[in-house]
Amino acid sequence: MKPVTIYTTRTCPFCIRAKALLDAEKIPYREIGVDGDSNARAELREKSGQRTVPQIWIGDQHVGGCDELFQVANRGQLQALLED
C-alpha cells in the first residue's frame, strides 16, 4: 500500500472530515500539522503550490484537498490509488 500523507491544522473542519474518511476506510496516514510550524507550511507551499489545508498525497501523487479525496472515494478509485 502506498503511504498517505495529509497536511492539516487542528481546527480545520475539512481536515477533520478527510481524516475521518481515511479512518473509516482503515487507511493509515502520516499527518503533518502545520499549526505554528513555519517550516511545515513552507514545505506544504513548495510541494503543492497551495496554502490551504488539508493537502493530501497518496504515494507521490498529490490528490488535493478534502473535496478531491471524497471525489476519488465516491468514484471507487481510492483503493486503486493505494495499490503499489
TrEMBL record:
One of its GO terms (biological process) is cell redox homeostasis. One of its GO terms (molecular function) is glutathione disulfide oxidoreductase activity. GO terms for cellular component: cytoplasm. Residues 4-63 form the Glutaredoxin domain. Pfam families: Glutaredoxin. Keywords: Cytoplasm, Disulfide bond, Electron transport, Redox-active center, Transport. Belongs to the glutaredoxin family. Has a glutathione-disulfide oxidoreductase activity in the presence of NADPH and glutathione reductase. Reduces low molecular weight disulfides and proteins. PANTHER family: GLUTAREDOXIN 2, GLUTAREDOXIN-1-RELATED. This is Glutaredoxin.
